[in-house]
Amino acid sequence: MRLSLTQKYQLIDDTKYLLKIQQNFSSENVLERNRVNNTAFDLWDGNMYDYAGVSRGWRNDCLNWTNRTGEVLNEMQSGYGLANPRKSLYDAFKAYDAANGGSDYRLDNSIKPLSWLQANGLTIAKQNYGQEGYWNYKHRFLLNEMTENYGFGGWNIWVHINWRAMRYSEVLLLAAEANLTSNNALATADFNLVRSRAKLNTVGAVTLDMIKQEKRFELCFEGCRWLDLIRWGDAYTVLKDQGKQIIVLNVDGTTSVGGTHADGGFKQSKNELLPIPETEMLLNKNMVQNTGWVAAE
Fold first, then answer.
1. Range(s) of the domain holding residue 272
2. Which among 283, 292, 260, 274 has a CA at the least distance from the CA of 227?
3. Strands 146-151, 154-159: parallel, antiparallel or unpaired by DSSP?
4. Longest CA span, the chain
5. Domain count, the chain
6. Environment class of residue 214 by beta-carbon count within 10 Å: exposed (0-12), middle (13-18) or buried (19+)?
7. Cα 285 to Cα 201, 250, 274, 290, 291, distances in angstroms
8. Burial of 17 (0-12, 13-18, 19+ CB in 10 A)
9. Residues paired with 157 in a beta bridge
10. Does some domain include residue 273?
11. Could you tell me if 271 and 293 are in contact, meaning their C-beta atoms sit under 8 angstroms apart?
12. In this structure, are residues 275 and 158 in contact, taking their beta carbons and an 8 Å threshold?
């Protein structure tokens, strides 16, 4: 018997503010953590300070803003330059949309290219390592979602956006995968709900490859990709060269290779599992370390 969640959960219509404060506690949020806008809370307890938020995006010391608005402002103002979108993701996203209905609606609400940023007043002050000219627009901070406060060694961003651990679109795609072989009609119906919201063509039957692609773009930057690739057995194929080159965004907007890392990339028969912590290994001498990791002495 299939359990229906449609009475409690449903996809919201407009994804422009999908992960924004306007959609805190929305019908699409299956699991979320509330962030209270109350400075009486300890800044470092996770209620106010967005650790991930200030890590994402371009380094603030590499940028100049000439037009700072609510739609443009985000963690760039005090970012550490981590977890930027790759050109390969943007290109694949663009090609997927073109092949499946031609609408860039979801892409435009997820990633912005350098050209869009420049049109909104951004200039590059100096080389930005680990950046290929694309920006995580999905997790941008708006002015009404944050408070900037000087303290703890510099400017900090206090954020009032709830953290989403699972959205209903992920539930639908997981259901589609689960029903793929036993009830393809049901799998296709769930799959098409996500496709329709993205303004893409619906399909008559769904395949695992379709679900894999849809999850990549629908849930980009939301912490699902790694586990999916491991579970599907695709991690080595997709990530074998990840991190072997350090891409640099230059002041003139071009990119170049700023360094190499020979040990980068996913290691087959190793990275599928994390190492067992050394403490656990020392406490239990009968425990065998996972393949590829050095056993504790």
1. 267-297
2. 274
3. antiparallel
4. 62
5. 1
6. buried
7. 56, 51, 18, 14, 16
8. middle
9. 148
10. yes
11. no
12. no
Is 213 within a domain? no
Question: CA 30, CA 26: separation in Å to the nearest integer?
Answer: 9
pLDDT at 123: 87
pLDDT digit string (tens) for 195-217? 999 999 999 999 999 999 999 99
Q: How far is 29 from 34, CA to CA, in rounded Å?
A: 11
Cα separation, 35 vs 295, in Å, equals 41
Residue 294 belongs to a domain: yes
- Specify whether the CB–CB gap between 29 and 167 falls below 8 A: yes
In a domain, 283, yes or no: yes
Identify each DSSP E strand in 207-296 by its residue range: 245-249, 255-260
Lowest-pLDDT range of 53-67, 127-141, 251-265: 53-67
φ, ψ of residue 212 to 5 degrees: the values are -60, -45
What totals of helices (H) and strands (E) does the chain contain, helices first? 10, 11
CB atoms closer than 10 angstroms to residue 231: 11
162's tokens: 């709830």
Dist CA 198 CA 193 (whole Å) = 9
Q: Which among 264, 11, 35 is positioned nearest to 161, based on CA atoms?
A: 35
Contacts of 18 (CB under 8 A, 6+ apart): 12, 28, 109, 138, 167
Give the residue among 224, 216, 211 at the shortest CA–CA distance from 177: 211
> Rounded to two decimals, what is the model's pTM?
0.89
The C-alpha atoms of residue 191 and residue 135 are separated, in whole angstroms, by 27
